[in-house]
Amino acid sequence: MWEYTEKVKEHFMNPRNVGELEGANAVGETGSLSCGDALKLFLKVDENEKIVEASFMTFGCASAVASSSALTEIVKGMTLDEAAKLTNEDISNYLGGLPKEKMHCSVMGQSALKKAIANYRGIQILEKPGRIVCECFDVTDLEIIDAVKANNIGTADDVTNYLKAGGGCGKCIEHIEEIIESVKAGR
Amino acid sequence: MKIVYTDNNATTKVADEVIEEMLPYLGEFYGNPSSMHTFGDQVGKKIKEARQKVADLINADPEEIVFTSCGTESDNSAIFSAIHAFPDKKHIITSNVEHPAVKNLFMHLGKKQGYKITFVPVDKKGILDTDQLYKRMTEDTALVSLMWANNETGVLFPIEEIAQKTREKGILFHTDAVQAAGKVVIDVKKTDVDMLSLSGHKIHAPKGIGVLYIKNGLKFSPFLIGGHQEKGRRGGTENTVSIIGMGKACELAKKNLPVVNTAVRKLRDYLQNQLLEKIPSCSVNGDLNLRLPNTLSIGFDAVEGESILLMLDRYGICASSGSACTSGSLDPSHVLMAMGVPFKSAHGTIRFSLSHYNTPEEMDHIILALISVIEKLRAMSPFWKNGKLI
């Protein structure tokens, strides 16, 4: 069994802010049925760009539910500018940490939040910059480089743990290893 | 809290009768069966008895039984021995729904030792494409290794027919019968396999004991090279206590086979039909007829397996899932993927595997718990609205 913290278990069994939020004016969706997890985040933002309410709907494992629940608790009361700075580490830390293999659940939270903020501001999220490396999970080279730098990742397995990239057909694992090498080499 | 154990394809309760049989040999009778004194020899006699009981379960001769440490060791020994027997043949065949003990060894042999590997596909009910299998058997094929029953879905492969075909072509045939033992009739006099693997802890013996059946006259190269034990086919001092337990477990498995095929099957069918009736959007994985009597693999749309399991855990219910999130990988089980089970239900698949220790009351407990767990998770799911998948 996974070693979940008490806080992860508690948020899984008693998730906060579940369901569609009536009057939500910012919605962010990420993930899909085929991925095995998905999150739809609802925010109610007031005229001062402050998040007054947040809720979620999640399909996924215990840590996906707990990460979503934690996210809604964290962002309540934040301004959009503050929320935009939130990282996946913040979500994981709030829960007392997540197993390495489950870090992508916190990344999913961060990604849904970004999308919700963009949705509120009327910004169309354009095609992701960079080149697709992992076709199964639609992950680009720039995303991998960012994650490798931000989390000091050293192996392709860990890239999979954070971004899912490489976790499907596995065809891109060599490419991911090359990217890690080039980041390490400072290129 | 009372535990409701329905994860018997993962492991089973050690039968009280088995423990009772083992205990004296864990304490008082600690002798080495190879020793030249009565104290050791009485253990040797008991092992002989155990070997006979194991042989009786599959209608083998006792000298065809080799004790190993687990099902994985039996599988590995059989496969390595087969390729050593035919060093010039560079092709081996298995299916794409095997247990990792076979699947990963085949992949290793392909990658590291240059073997050409054929993974024969299954259809959406989990049934083996035997036409493909027979077409792919060539002069260069050293071995066919196929499971008798699938651990995740319980689907049975036509081992008797395949054994005939491999025999005609002079290709060695190994079957992993770990899940089949104690649940279907295994008769090696009738089903002409060369080698067959069993595992103790799937049939109410302890963990750490396995069996490899090796057909009389078959050339065998040992996996563990050491002493003369097991007639030189598996070195290492015998795990006397567990072997004695395994003997008793096989005797009980033979006795309980009719119970598993009547009472246990009835419980499984009751659980299956009640869940299908009471929970919308769920479906059984695997052929409904060509299936072990104790296994139910059932997928619930729009929810995820790990979440289901952890919530069932709160009710004391033990089951398994074919979901990615329990295993650390991201794709759902390779078995469900090979069958083409759609993602919507593959991620939400739960396996219940029963034994003769289960009761109708336990089935009712599972049904009630599952209705509420699925309802709770679907209320949270972005893919579920107004009682339907969206």
Characterization of the model:
The complex is a heterodimer of chains A (187) and B (390). By secondary structure, chain A is an alpha+beta fold. Chain A folds into 2 domains: 6-120, Sufe protein. Chain: A (Alpha-Beta Complex); 132-184, Orthogonal Bundle (Arc Repressor Mutant, subunit A), CATH 1.10.10.1100. Chain A is 44% helix and 16% strand. Chain A contains 8 helices and 5 strands. In chain A, the strands form 2 sheets. In chain A, strands 1-2-3 form a 3-stranded antiparallel sheet. Chain A has a two-stranded antiparallel ribbon with strand order 4-5. In chain A, helix 2 crosses helix 5. Chain A is globular, with a radius of gyration of 16 Å. Chain A starts with 5 loop residues before the first helix and ends with a helix. Chain B has a 7-stranded mixed sheet with strand order 2-8-7-6-5-3-4, sandwiched between helices. Chain B has 2 domains: 4-10 and 256-379, Alpha-Beta Complex (Aspartate Aminotransferase, domain 1), CATH 3.90.1150.10; 16-253, Aspartate Aminotransferase, domain 2. With 390 residues, chain B is an alpha/beta fold. In chain B, helix 1 (16-26) packs antiparallel against helix 7 (240-278), helix 2 runs parallel beside helix 7 (240-278) and helix 8 crosses helix 11. Chain B contains 11 helices and 15 strands. Chain B is globular. The chains are: A alpha+beta (187), B alpha/beta (390). The A-B interface holds A 12-13, 15, 18-19, 29, 33-40, 57-62, 64-65, 101-102, 137, 160, 164, 167-168 and B 302-307, 310-311, 314, 323-326, 328-332, 343-344, 347, 379-383.
